[in-house]
Amino acid sequence: MVTQGRIRVVRSGGSKLNYRRPVFSADGKYLMCVSGDFIKVYSTATEECIHTLQGHDNLVTGIELNPKNHLQLYSCSLDGTIKLWDFIDGILIKTFLIGCKCLTLYTSDTDELLFAVTLKKNNGSTASPQLVSVKLPKSTSQECEAKDISVIFEDVSHLPKCTAIGRQCLYVASVKGLHLSIYYFKTKKCFRRNFNHKQGYVYSSLHWHHDSVMDLTFSAQGTKLLSGGVESVLVQWPYGSEEKKEFLPRLGAAIEHISTSPHGTLYCTSHEDNKISIIDTSLKVSGIIQGLLKGTVVKTGLVVDPRSNALVLNGKPGHLQFYSLHNDRHLYNLDIVQQEFIHQAGLQYMDLVKALFNSTGKWLATVEELQGGEDSRDLEMQMKFWEYQDKSQSFVLNTIISRPHEDHITSLCFRDGVSSAKDSPTLVTTGKDGIFKVWVLNNNYDIYKQSNSWCCDFVGSYHKNKATNCCFSEDGSLLAVSFDEIITVWESSTWDLKQTFCQPPGKIRNLCFGRMSCSKYLVASTNDGFIYCWNLLTCALEWRAQLDAAVLQPDPLSENIAVISCPKGSSNLFLFQPTDPRPFYAHKNVCREKVQWAVFVPKEIPEFVNSESHQWLNKSQLYFLTENQDLLTFSSKSTEERLTPLSKQLAVEESLPVTPFHLLLCKKRQEEQEKLDVQLVKAAPSFHRVYQDSAIREVLHTPAHVLPSASVLCTIFVNSLLISRKSQSTEELKDEEMESEHLEGDSTDETEEVESQNTFPSAFSLDVSGILPKVQEKELRKIRRTDYSWLSSL
User: Fold this and answer.
1) 81-101: b or e for each residue (b if 16 or more CB lie within 10 Å)?
2) Do residues 429 and 436 lie in contact, with contact meaning Cβ atoms separated by under 8 Å?
3) Pick from 251, 299, 308, 249: which is nearest to 275 by CA?
């Protein structure tokens, strides 16, 4: 068994963007928000992620602009540090060690003074939040310890909205429950009062929201008050004329945070569906930053779109969300139910419970059920088939099948391996009604047009047991269907029952065929804590291992199968191949929560690593989702190096602002120029080719401040393009050189005349001077005739 090595669990993205209130830059061009352990910097104009600030080892709990430098950002985290960033360039400037967990961060106008809510360790196991002031030390080192920490309030609320810092840092106010505490810095006294008697303290009341208000904030000028709540409506209250309030409705989800830009031209709202809406002062949405939607039960599991390699799972009620794992960005939502969702407790609604793509991504099958009903006789269910249209670049509804089963559908599987192009796509569904159905695509012909639709082709059962799982073999020739404790194997061409497998008592929880060289094996996990492997050639049990597998996920690009077990308090990963019951890789305590779903995602660029502990990450990446809806994956050092931006990997000249596109284009041009040079070597005379190349090179590479006039440049360049009327061959040149040794006077003059006709002085070369004397010319010709080919072997 291979040990863990350098492979570790990392957060894949999809973290909450609405965990804390976003922060605008001073000019309103950038928007910073917390995203798990990272801080993301977005452009308010394009909604693109400009930088991802990485450096904290735990959850980031607060961000604030540096009042002394608006190009810098402070952040605090549960790792007990406060970091100072240059968010324009994405650079970490300094780290301050606090020594305790920071829950909230506040800045002040005073010199290097911050406020934070930290956890005070008591004698017992619990810790209470306290508000402290932190004097940041002035040090040249990048990491230093902040020792000057003083407590202002004890037992305060950990919520950032419950504490506020006054201007010029004169007052600090904090509220918890019905108690308000105000601290005056000059006298260092604390004033407390309560709000038990409501009528004695209310100066004015503004009413529109029918439910609790989630956030309040004033505009930059202080003339307007913004409020939002569960109604998904942003309300703008003008000061002095509150009856003229304005509304921005239908924002999609409950508003949790409201932020305003310092110059007052932009607002932004954070919603419970992990979305940030950028709004201008005319109350119009100018941009949306959508993260991985959380807060809903993931009933579809983790599905991969073969076309875009995007992660697909439940999104808004009745929707599928497509999420790019590579860019950590929400792509789009697909409305499956196509009904208006009403947010009210106790109402029944149609929700998406199953989704599956075929191997090409051409077809998508979905199942939706009415939530809230327990009786199967009143079950309302629909199965829909969606076809991907290349012209519209979207999925179009093809077929709707009402109540495909008499009870809940338990699993779906497409037949991926088809023997010929004539084989129509096939889908198998299993249900609690004790049957499995085979659905095929049929072509329909009428007088108007040719169309296609899905219909039921075969219905199978086994002793009226509940059908729980189904899967096809890699080539699509066999279908395995589990009925409670029994596994049946069917031939897909005739739908005949070929074999049944039984094991000790225990219902089948997961079922899958082996891949590639292990395609003759069938693997299943049961709810009594065992994994079984059968050999389909001998129809015998190959091996059995004791492991309570919550997730059994095969890798479509290799023989590997991932198993995740979830004992109390942790989750463990094991990787094995059906040929050997012993796992070749194990990773214990991958997370503290229970893992619900896992999926292998093919990599865009396969990797080739010789290490045994890394080979299972060569072609695919394993992602898994916890019960807290944290999306995690496994990463190695070599993988992270390949995921760094291309602009940081390419070596560029320091004097030129070179982009990755320029480097790629330059490389292509160099290859083309090399090919052209090879052709010129074979075609053109050597003296003409060398001169032409040198002339062009000198024109292009000579600094502009030392170039001669344009007339000289044009003359040299045009002359380099001219071809002499007489192209002497190599033999003729050798004969001429032999004759020049014996001839003097006129013969030498003739040689000089020929050379003067075929040679042009260069304006950029320092080697070319006047005409050489005859004695030096003879010595130069002798040097030219000397064979120096032996130097090439050195």
Assistant:
1) bbbbbbbeeeebebbbebebb
2) yes
3) 251
Domain 18-196 annotated CATH 2.130.10.10: yes
**Residues 6 or more apart from 584 whose CB is under 8 A from it?**
1, 2, 575, 576, 577, 612, 616
Best CA proximity match to 290, nearest among 318, 268, 271, 303: 271
Bridge partners (DSSP) listed for residue 436? 430, 460
Q: What are the phi and psi torsion angles at 303 (to 5°)?
A: -120, 145
Q: pTM above the 0.85 mark?
A: no
Q: What is the pLDDT of residues 554-573, one digit of tens each?
A: 999 999 999 999 888 788 99
Phi/psi of residue 8, each to 5°?
Answer: -140, 160
Residues in the chain: 794
- CA 54/CA 252 separation, integer angstroms: 30
Q: Are strands 143-145 and 91-97 parallel, antiparallel or unpaired?
A: parallel
Cα 173–chain centre separation: 40
Classify residue 13 by its DSSP letter. S
Its sign, for the CA torsion 212, 215, 218, 224, is: negative
Which alpha helices (DSSP H) does 722-789 contain, by range? Answer: 730-742, 746-758, 774-785
Task: Tell whether the model's pLDDT for residue 338 goes beyond 70.
Answer: yes
Name the residue type at position 546.
Q
What does the pLDDT look like over 173-208, one tens digit per residue? 888 888 888 888 777 777 777 666 655 566 678 889
Tokens 């983790």, located at residue: 302
Distance CA 572, CA 350 (A): 35
Q: Note whether 63 and 31 are within 8 A (CB).
A: no
Instruction: Using the predicted structure, report yes or no on whether residue 753 has a pLDDT greater than 50.
Output: no
C-alpha distance from residue 375 to each of 215, 378, 379, 382 (Å): 41, 6, 7, 16
**Which of 385-399, 634-648, 754-768 shows the lowest per-residue confidence on average (mean pLDDT)?**
754-768
Report d(CA 479, CA 488) in Å as an integer.
Answer: 8
The H or E element containing residue 544 is: strand 540-546
Residue 503, Ramachandran bin (φ over 0: left; ψ between -120 and 50: alpha; else beta): beta
Asked if 626 and 593 count as a contact pair (C-beta separation under 8 A), the reply is yes
Residues 6+ apart with CB under 8 A from 572: 564, 565, 566, 586, 587, 588, 589, 590
Per the rule left: phi > 0, alpha: psi between -120 and 50, beta: everything else, 57 is alpha
Beta strands in 100-223 (DSSP E): 102-107, 113-121, 127-135, 143-145, 148-154, 163-165, 171-176, 179-184, 189-194, 213-218
Report residue 447's pLDDT band, with 50, 70 and 90 as the boundaries: low
Residue in the block written with tokens 């000059």: 186
Pair of tokens at residue 506: 């225990």
Which carries the bigger pLDDT value, residue 16 or residue 504?
16
Q: Which pairing describes strands 549-554 and 426-431: parallel, antiparallel, or unpaired?
A: unpaired
DSSP symbol at 2: B
CA distance 26 to 428: 57
Per-domain residue ranges of the chain: 18-196, 661-793
- Distance from C-alpha of 455 to C-alpha of 457, rounded to nearest angstrom: 6
CA dist 125 and 121 (Å) reads 8
Query: Rounded to whole angstroms, how far apart are CA atoms 137 and 276?
Result: 35
- In sign, the C-alpha dihedral spanning 589, 591, 597, 603 is negative
Tally of CA atoms within 13 A in the half-sphere of 484 that contains its CB = 10
Distances (CA, A) of 436 to 107, 368, 476, 481, 694: 63, 18, 17, 8, 77
* Closest by Cα among 654, 648, 627, 491 to 566: 627
Could you report the per-residue pLDDT of 264-298, keeping only the tens digit for each?
A: 899 999 998 889 999 998 999 999 999 888 767 88
Terminal CA-to-CA distance of the chain, rounded, Å? 50
Residue 408 tokens, joined = 């809940």
